[in-house]
Amino acid sequence: MRTLFAALLLVATPALAQPLEALQPLEELQLLAEQPVEGMPGGNLSGLAWCGDALWAVSDREDDRLYRLAATGGVLHAEAEVFQAPAPPDSGQPWGLRMRTWVASLARGGALDFEGLSCDAKGNRYLLSEAHAGVLQLPPAGAGSWLNLPPGLVRQARASGMLLHFNALFEGIAVDPAGERLWLAAERERRGLLLLHKQQSSWRCTGGCVLLAEGGREAPPAQLGSRPQARDFSDVALFQGRLFTLERQAHRICRRKLETGQVEHCWSFANEVLTDARRYSQPFGVAEGLWVDAQGAWIGVDNGRKTRGDGEKRPVVWRFAAPAAGGWSETP
């Protein structure tokens, strides 16, 4: 009887079924530096990655360029690398969703809506198009091309409850150094992680594309009140055999297992960025790009051209130190 009662209680109160860590205060990451980005006329920094010897960024309002970020005097100066993307392939998204995305691009720019950036050890850059659920590969030299993704990728994601809503599609990408495995993050309602493997010139899902799919809402950091927000992913990064997800609304970074997407440990950055000086007027998070290394994490901010409390109008990149105790490999 006691066992039955406990099971019913978990069903009736989903919050109690969350990992214990989700119910406890998280370790706060330390902000080491904050650098505004100068020279991105389209603004809307949406993806971030360390490629080769520099930090690179992409905007979801510009379809023909990447930006190399060079630090000078506390400011990151964006140097554009222009490219021409071929027409994207048909992703299998429903007509209504594609039309809403197309109409939105006419008003705001960025028909390809690049929302993620990653790179491999050979210098290839991978740009994730939210609008077309596709990945554009840009080699160090030569023309770009769209990856040959599995035709059932979008169908499997939608069957798991993801990619059903306008402006809530694929939002993050991570590629392993060999360029043979690819992780995609679906943004929200429902959020999730998908894994693809390269096989010669195409990409396939082994045992299904979907690693993780979850919905629901959770309370934001105390600075934002108590109204629950939809769980989300705004980017994903790969480091030391683990995935790291940027969870924008919760203002945290979480380490997850490569094979399942199961959460292992999380760290918060809320205290550092939810100050009066760094706050924006909108009720949603602005952290869009993530890159993790041994020394810490880079987080790119998409301010949507809005002005924050201290008057800063430019996109911003935050540099956080790795966790004090054990670094990113800390055991839960």
From TrEMBL:
Every Phytase-like domain range: 43-190
Pfam families recorded: Phytase-like
Signal peptide: 1-17
Keyword Isomerase annotated: yes
UniProt entry keywords in alphabetical sequence: Isomerase, Signal
GO molecular function: isomerase activity
Entry protein name: DNA topoisomerase IV
Phylogenetic classification of the source organism: Bacteria, Pseudomonadati, Pseudomonadota, Gammaproteobacteria, Pseudomonadales
